[in-house]
What we know:
The mean pLDDT is 94. It is globular and about 55 Å long. The chain has eleven helices and twelve strands. By secondary structure, it is an alpha/beta fold. Strand 11 (256-257), helix 7 (270-276) and strand 12 form a beta-alpha-beta unit. Residues 146-147, 150, 179-180, 182-186, 203-206, 224, 238-240, 260-262, 288, 291 line the site of nicotinamide-adenine-dinucleotide (NAD).
Amino acid sequence: MSVFEHPSYDNHEKILFATDKVTGLQAIIGVHSTVSGPACGGCRMWSYPSSAEALEDVLRLSQGMSYKNIMADLPIGGGKSVIMKPEGEFNRQELFEAFGRAVESLGGQYITAEDVGVSPDDMMAVRQSTKHVVGLPEGKAASGDPSPITAEGVFRGMKVCIERGLGKSDLSGVRVAIQGAAGHVGAYLSGHLAEAGAELIITDINEPGLKELEAKYGAKIVGLDEIYDQDVDVFAPCALGAIVNPDTIDRIKAKIIAGAANNQLATREMGAEILKRGKIYAPDYVLNAGGIINVMGEIQGDFDPAWVQGKLVGLENTLGEILDQSENEGRPSNIIADEIARNRIEDKRSSKTMEPA
Ligand code: NAD
């Protein structure tokens, strides 16, 4: 298995392979960039079929966190970690304590948090071994559920897209299809949209959650697969990744694709396909940065709502710049977002290198 030659290796500053025979820990921590501050990003535990797949995931995800954090103008870099879920029985508390020791060995260059397959309680176990962990369920600065702030960021960004795509400054009568409407972000987003006068078309595997939204906001429920074919203005993916793909792209009628889900495009090339069809795509990691903005409050040691609001305004502005550039240059918004992120990282890196010792 190659690392430096790996297609997803992007000059990551550090990759730590951590094993602990006693607990069965096999983890990889990817520190993509610390140019803006400690690399921050969650820990994912997954039954990876091989260590090559775990490496691929950590390389991609840690780079993604760098991009997300720098686009939200946060004083943190990007990192991520993956734990290969042990087969059979294992002691979860001890496994996460061992993972905490690996995090601690980086001396604060990486700050971890929960991600897929990991709970706030697991982070409490990590906290036994290191203080470089956030997303704790309790404590002075615990930031709690990030979903309301994520939903607010998505809502604000969606308005930016609607202004550009539909020429409307309000949402009255705008039709929005939400995939994963009953989820943490989807439900808050539904509330914002309904309050602003939008018409909701919703789907989810959680039927009671859908019924609740139907009763509360008069939302129309459609089947899981029908969501793509709806005659709407906005398609908001708030559940799954890779949902804009060759099978769905021509079914999506919406002029605007803007939602909370991570990695919405199956491949980078889908951005060009969206543009070709005259649609607007809000790059996911720009739009859904509310969650990490919220966590930043915990890293800073206090939670300042005014600071959070300022960052959400920044998110709107950044998205506006990306969409303007995309329109002016006729290039896909996802590619432009990646370029801006990479340039911002490189600018910071070179200004750091030039600082006198
Ligand atoms: P969640 O698990 O609470 O919600 C996801 C919803 O999608 C659930 O209601 C689930 O039932 C539904 N769902 C699952 N499979 C589905 C399918 N096939 N079709 C339709 N719906 C389906 O998660 P969340 O926290 O609301 O996050 C939603 C997305 O946003 C995820 O991709 C997540 O990575 C991303 N995100 C979330 C945050 C946050 O603050 N929570 C921040 C950034 C990004």
